[in-house]
Amino acid sequence: MINSYDLMVAHPETFRSLSVKDMLFVHYTCPQVEKQINAWSEYNIIGFTLNGKKIYHQGGKTWILSEDNTLFSKKGAFTQEKYKYGGWEVMAFYIPDEYLKKVFNEYRRFLPLKDLPENTIDPMIELAIDDRIRSYFFSILTYFNHNGTSPEDLIELKFRELLFNIYSNPINRMLLAYVSGLVDQYKTPLWQIMESNFMFNLSISEYSRLSQRSVSTFKRDFNSVYKTTPGKWLINKRLGYAKDLLESSMKSINEIAYESGFENSSHFSRVFKERFMMTPVQYRQHSNNSIRVNG
Question: What is the model's pTM?
Answer without folding.
Answer: 0.91
